């Protein structure tokens, strides 16, 4: 077995991972590939033709380096881990982005890289400019602002402002979003590539845009400084001020740049000016500075020459592409406008349809209500007709009742007149009865007095008769027959008997007269009671008729009540005194009264 057979076979390929600003791509590279082979593969993969702005950067110890195009990849100081990681970034920046950046992909990569540098605070930006740049970034990502779609909080997951700006003001995330949205709403109609270009046009005016900073020391005094390399030249800064350079060397004023180990020399084009020398701590940094100076100077000179055929073709194609896209955007905008108009018309038609449906529903409801109302009105008309008939009938009845009431009123007037006449007769009768009662009372008193006198005379006569009898009894016993009195005593006794007989005859006659008068009085009282009862029954019947007639003649009933009360009072006055009866005087309650 030969010694060559024991040697281990070397791999023919190796893996690399290229990280762009918006993607990660892995490639399988041949061992013999140079840096340009890998770079061209990446550019072809992403469709980039403006390759002179970009490069592949990798990390070396505590700094970074750019992959050299003319050397093999594995022969450079690339990391030894596989896959080897490279960052595809912009190495050189244009002076005027709108004139130099032709392809849309180039603009997009520059936009993403500059945006990241601003958010990472590698490029200083004022808060106002940050808000404006953020609004263009939102326009590039979300398109036109739509308040119906872009609700509050839709930017909560996006990183749009540097932390320094967020910490500088005491504002909430909602307040920042409101400010950004206010600017964002004004960018309506701007396409994504236009929004990204506007972003870059604002960013290229920032002091730290496109500047690569390196720590250096000046010769002799060993003063710490910063060297800035950009598209316009070299700049010397103080360590604490990266915005305003202390000294600048434009590319047009530099004759030569060279370095020897750690010493770097800048020779101005004007030989009268002093040569500027500075020192770097690492040789690798000096090589990187020199590489950036050469590349930026070449681009500076290239910008001031006529464009190459390739660039002219690219610009023509880009111009045509922009014109085509502009036409497409116009068509799209017109179609969008037409679609919006169609949607608005559709919404209007739907709204109108809903409105017509509502109107139809309301019309149907109104029709139903009208039908119900018509039925109700017909029913009411029928009821009104019936009521009219009923009212006519009631009117006829009322007319009849009125005529009847008129007749009744006439009758009532006649009855009133008759009643008043009867009342007057009753009053006259009552007055007569009262007068007769008084006269009878006087007569009764006289008769009573006469009766008392007769009783006294009778008692005296009896007493005297007893006395005479007692005085003549012995003589009567002595003589068998009484002799005629000589002195006329017998005549006196006979005269006494005649007087007694006379008194008895008067008493009988008086008793008969009293009895006769009592009977006459009782008959008159009974006749008066009958008249009063008849009058009361007539009054009650008249009251009942008046109640049935609704009290039309209530005052007439009151008058009749008054007359009836007067008659009762008069009758009471008649029967109030004591009445004379046979055998003496009795009270009123012994007489039949009303």
3D structure, described in words:
- The structure is a single chain.
- The chain is an alpha+beta fold and 594 residues long.
- It is built from twelve helices and 14 strands.
- A hairpin with a 2-residue loop joins strand 3 (54-60) and strand 4 (63-66).
- The strands form three sheets. Strands 9-8-7-6-12-11-10 form a seven-stranded antiparallel sheet, with helices on one face. A five-stranded mixed sheet has the order 2-1-5-3-4, with helices on both faces.
Show the helix and strand layout:
Layout: H1 3-6, E1 13-19, E2 24-30, H2 35-46, E3 54-60, E4 63-66, E5 84-90, H3 97-100, H4 104-119, H5 127-142, H6 163-168, H7 173-184, H8 192-203, E6 212-218, E7 224-229, E8 233-237, E9 247-250, E10 254-260, E11 263-268, E12 276-279, H9 283-303, H10 309-478, H11 489-548, H12 554-575, E13 579-581, E14 584-586
Parallel strand pairs: 1-5
Antiparallel strand pairs: 1-2, 3-4, 3-5, 6-7, 6-12, 7-8, 8-9, 10-11, 11-12, 13-14
Helix pairs in contact: 4-8, 5-7, 5-8, 10-11, 10-12, 11-12
